[in-house]
Design brief:
By secondary structure, the protein is of the alpha+beta class. 48% of the residues lie in helices and 14% in strands. The protein has a single domain (6-75), classed as lambda repressor-like DNA-binding domains (434 Repressor (Amino-terminal Domain), Orthogonal Bundle), CATH 1.10.260. The chain has helices spanning 6-16, 20-27, 31-38, 46-58; strands at 61-66, 70-75. It has a two-stranded antiparallel ribbon with strand order 1-2. Pfam families: HTH_3.
Amino acid sequence: MLPLNPPQCRAARALLDWTQAELADRAEVSRSTIRDFESGRHDLHRASAAQIRRACEDAGVVFVDVEGVGPGVCLRETEPDQRA
């Protein structure tokens, strides 16, 4: 599992239209943990990073690492593509 970085965290929240408080609530961490991580004030403990990642993934975020581009996020399709 690739490490979570602050821009990915902000981008995941943006895709989900979540505030820092909403992410903190869903990940069961403090809002200050989200705020300080996203602003680069401190790194996350491994457990906090896993909780944040899991909350985002449960809501449909996919964390990716694109060769030649770097880490990013996208949303999983909610329904399989029906086109053949």
